[in-house]
Prior knowledge:
29% helix, single chain, six-stranded mixed beta sheet, 4 helices
Amino acid sequence: MLKGIPPILGPDLLYILRAMGHGDEIAIVDANYPADSAGPQLVRLDGITATDVLDAVLTLMPLDTFVDDQAFGMEVVGAPQKREQTHKEFDTLIKKHEPDMQLSMLERFAFYERVRGAFAVIQTGERRLYGNVLLKKGIVRPE
């Protein structure tokens, strides 16, 4: 255990978050997501919700301020304007850690394609539908 680091972030995930560079992306996905076949390295956090993982990750990882969109959810199939509870909670957590940012949305297959190019995937135990979010890492500025 370490002070100030959420205990759900184990050593493998901490290594990944530290190894990522500016502009790299990481996906936090639900239990239904085809994470094993997505391509990037995979960390499993079974039994933990995607919202708890997002909150923990954003305590350590800055989001990219050099792009217009830095956090993406998956659109609801057949209803792209609809927002599920997971989307609303992701947006609230993003604003908690990065007040000037918000959740943007990607069409389902565009989301899958973008995740294939991510640095890593965190598969959670999230059972709610559309519990998927993709984050673009930013920089830590000098003090």
